[in-house]
Specification:
Layout: H1 3-9, E1 24-28, E2 31-34, E3 39-42, H2 45-48, H3 57-68, H4 83-93, E4 100-106, H5 109-126, E5 134-138, H6 147-151, H7 156-159, E6 170-173, H8 178-181, H9 188-206, E7 211-217, E8 219-220, E9 227-228, H10 233-244, E10 247-252, E11 276-279, E12 291-296, H11 297-305, H12 320-335, H13 338-357, E13 363-369, E14 372-377, H14 393-403, E15 406-407, E16 409-411, E17 422-425, H15 433-451
Helix pairs in contact: 3-12, 4-12, 5-11, 9-10, 13-15, 14-15
The chain binds pyridoxal-5'-phosphate.
Pyridoxal-5'-phosphate binds next to helix 5.
GO molecular function, one term: transaminase activity
Family: Belongs to the class-III pyridoxal-phosphate-dependent aminotransferase family.
GO cellular component, one term: cytosol
Length: 455
């Protein structure tokens, strides 16, 4: 069957109409098994999701055990709760990281973003400042694909069709993209301060009493490619938020839950933490969809002293099955010290990427943290010239990787001013050193092949 015939025949509307997706029939450790029997190392965990790989009998058992209770579903909007949901929130928050003390669980990252925005608006209503409905977000950012999440996402191509729905109550400041935006003679500290001043100016332009919150990914994921901020950036942002009472909302849907080598990526920023944080993807290791919002005690206190409830909810929020899977995943991560391991293996991955891939002619930058890394490609290394989008460089690399048995994620969409042609390498926390070597060597070979017409 040709691709066109397959696409026409399939009743699933796939994202691309020009490619025939390969059918996955099984998982095996960190690999996926295709219908043809071929194995593919899943070195990006889908879009950075399956952080424990694909064979986890303990999670399978936790899910089946949960179903043995014969409870189809518990509506957490009704007067009920369940053990799995309570336990998951305890695991995440019993030590109150950064003062975060309550959780809301929903199903996707985009829903978590929407819930976080609504929570911030509700907070200001409860505090007697209902005019605080303005959000400041960052250009070339991504916080999800629902209309609410797109409103705060500086992702131009994903917003394009829906411009009429985008809120004028959201404005954007520059991201912390040092590779292209930091001046040649500018130190990290000066760059951080410059971005801080831009953020503060924006608060003053809008009027501090109108700004509800600032939304940012702690480590930017798909639009700017595993991009940590320069040291001091988030300290400056946190200080400015505090000065004007603006809520700091950190999106850790892609970078959180251990991926950067600490449970929360913000722990490496020298700040006390966000006021609201979103989590997702690795939270449940991908077995059942789950995401969440963590909120600071002060948010809960305001709601508690005000209307006494949450003005938000979904039918499937805090689904017990998803929470049971996530409890099992989080127990494994804790028992096997996988976050420490992620930090250690991350150093190995970084060293391999820098040694083997860094010197390649068309590789402009390598960046990331823990097991969350990106390689950015450029046509001219010294000038940092981007490829023409038509070259589709990163996706050619992805294709060559797939041919040789490696799954990585490429990202090229038009997200804003800078074309960030990159691939993401974010293998499971269980990856071994020899698997890392294999991943980097397959990636290197794919880059060599893709580079041929350009060098
Ligand atoms: N926020 C970030 C940082 C993301 O990377 C994503 C997805 O890639 C989302 C939000 C949206 O998550 P979802 O696709 O689960 O809705």
């Amino acid at each position: 069957m040709t691709t066109d015939e397959f696409v026409a025949r399939s009743h699933i509307l796939h994202r691309s109409f020009s490619e025939r997706p390969a059918k996955i029939v099984a998982g095996d450790g960190i690999s996926l098994v295709l219908e043809s029997g071929k194995k593919v190392i899943d070195a990006s965990c889908g879009p950075s999701v399956s952080c424990l790989g694909h064979s986890q009998p303990e999670i399978t058992e936790a899910i089946t055990n949960h179903l043995k209770n014969d409870i189809a579903y518990v509506y957490s909007g009704s007067p009920y709760t369940n053990g799995a949901t309570e336990e998951l929130a305890d695991i995440l928050l019993s030590e109150k990281p950064g003062g975060l003390s309550k959780a809301i669980f929903v199903n996707s990252g985009s829903e978590a973003t929407d819930a976080a925005l609504k929570l911030a608006v509700q907070y200001w209503h409860e505090r007697g400042q209902p005019q605080r409905t303005h959000f400041i977000a960052r250009k070339q950012s991504y916080h999800g694909n629902t209309i609410g999440a797109l409103c705060v996402s500086g992702h131009e191509s994903r917003r394009e069709f829906y411009k009429d729905f985008m809120s004028s109550n959201v404005t954007f400041v520059d991201p912390c993209y040092a590779y292209r935006m930091k001046g040649d003679d500018e130190s990290d500290e000066e760059f951080a301060q410059r971005l801080g001043r831009q953020f503060e100016d924006e608060i003053l332009r809008i009027g501090p009493d109108r700004v509800a919150g600032f939304v940012a990914e702690t480590v930017s994921g798909t639009t700017l490619g595993c991009l940590p901020a320069v040291p001091g950036y988030f300290r400056a942002i946190r200080d400015i938020c505090d000065r004007y009472g603006v809520l700091l909302i950190l999106d850790e849907i892609i970078c959180g839950m251990g991926k950067t080598g600490t449970m929360h990526a913000w722990e490496q920023e020298g700040i006390r933490g966000p006021d609201i944080q979103t989590i997702g993807k690795a939270l449940g290791a991908g077995f059942v969809p789950l995401s969440g919002v963590l909120l600071h005690q002060k948010i809960f206190d305001a709601l508690s002293a005000g209307s006494g409830g949450l003005a938000h909810g979904h039918t499937f929020q805090a689904h017990p099955l998803a929470c049971a899977a996530a409890v099992a995943a989080q127990r494994i991560i804790k028992r096997d010290n996988l976050i420490e391991r992620t930090a250690q293996m991350g150093h190995k991955l970084e060293a391999l990427l820098r040694k083997e891939i860094g010197p390649m002619a068309l590789v402009g930058d390598i960046r990331g943290r823990g097991l969350f890394w990106a390689v950015e490609f450029v046509l001219d290394k010294s000038l940092k010239t981007a490829f023409s989008p038509k070259a589709n460089f990163c996706n050619q690399v992805v294709k060559h990787c797939l041919d040789s048995g490696l799954n990585i994620l490429g990202n090229l969409g038009h997200t804003g001013e800078y074309q960030v042609d990159h691939v993401l390498v974010c293998p499971p926390y269980t990856v071994t050193e020899s698997e890392l070597e294999e991943i980097v060597s397959l990636l290197m070979a794919a880059i060599v092949k893709t580079s041929e017409p350009f060098v």
